[in-house]
Amino acid sequence: MSEALYPIKVAAKKSGLTVHTIRAWERRYNILAPSRTGTNRRLYSEEEIQKLSLLFKATQEGYPIGSLLDLSLESLSKMLKPKSAVTLVFPQKEITKTNENSENFISECLIAIKKLDPTSFELILNKALISLGKARLIEDVIFPLIEKIGKMWQEGNLRISHEHLASSLLRTFLGGMINNMDLSDSAPLLISTTPAGQIHELGALIVGVIASLDGWRVNYLGPNLPAEEIIEACLINNPKVLCLSFVYPGDDLRLEKELKQLKKFLPKEICLLAGGRAVNNYRELIEDLKALPISDLSHFKKILRQVSN
């Protein structure tokens, strides 16, 4: 009996992907070479659909599609097995429906990004800031915008240049929000950064903005910071809280040494928070640090208020 083959619409339905995403992945990454009919229509086997399904689940967990290309079905399945460890997540936006005004700002931002128009992008962010205020701007516009940019990049609908433009401008915009907060020197101090090898910084920046809006002085140290520099900054500044963000890459073997050094020399009285999309990849190392798990923005703010008292 010949193997069952399915058209792309069925493959999309079974895998959870869209037809457009499957085609984009094949075009950009050559992830599969499906059979073709006499009229050049794609036909997918059960094994190919299974791989598409696993790739979809992996990208939903934050793995970049480019890092998954050479993995076998067995490797993908092992990687996606349910973990028994506690999931540590940096404050993510609670699931709420953004209002129409916020959705319009997000759409306008995406148009500016696609046009590689930094002036328009910055103008839209400032208009949203005036219209919504700082807290709602972060929760209703910037959080979902970052999620959309990441998803569109994974699906092949944005180029690397688009993602870099957006990240660069958001970095400057969020940093300005932190630096422009007028807080008393007696306010509690929070340090936010990413450890060595972790190159994506927007999560750490957003956490800093949220903390500053809640009355914390924030010392944002940038991304990719070696353990000895983090320790030195904590010894000099004596913060109440240290936030570490883990986003990408998710398989850096050097990170174990870095986190062990933090555990050994970081002052014990500092409250350590850890999170980000890649925390599950480093779950044992992070648990060994005794980092406090954060589930969402409300929980994050609650923790800060408890620690500040």
What are the key terms here?
single chain, 309 residues, alpha/beta, Multidrug-efflux Transporter Regulator, Chain: A, Domain 2, Rossmann fold, three-stranded antiparallel sheet, 13 helices, 7 strands, 8% strand
What's a quick, concise take on this entry?
The protein is built from 13 helices and seven strands. The protein is of the alpha/beta class.
Overview of the molecule:
- The protein contains 13 helices and 7 strands.
- It is an alpha/beta fold.
- It folds into 2 domains: 6-79, Orthogonal Bundle (Multidrug-efflux Transporter Regulator, Chain: A, Domain 2), CATH 1.10.1660.10; 100-308, 3-Layer(aba) Sandwich (Rossmann fold), CATH 3.40.50.
- The protein is globular and about 75 Å long.
- Residue-averaged pLDDT, rounded? 82
Q: What fold name stands as the CATH topology of the largest domain?
A: Rossmann fold
Helix content: 40-55%
What structural category arises from helix and sheet content?
alpha/beta
* Radius of gyration from the alpha-carbon trace, in angstroms: 21 Å
How many beta-strand elements?
Answer: 7
Report the portion of residues in β strands: 5-15%
Number of helices: 13
Number of domains: 2
Q: Tell me, what's the shape?
A: globular
**CATH C-level class of the largest domain:** Alpha Beta
CATH homologous superfamily label of the largest domain: Cobalamin-binding domain
End-to-end distance: 71 Å
Give the ordered list of helices and strands: EHHEEHHHHHHEHEHEHEHH
Largest sheet: 4 strands, parallel
CATH architecture verdict of the largest domain: 3-Layer(aba) Sandwich
> Spans with pLDDT under 50 lasting ≥5 residues?
82-98
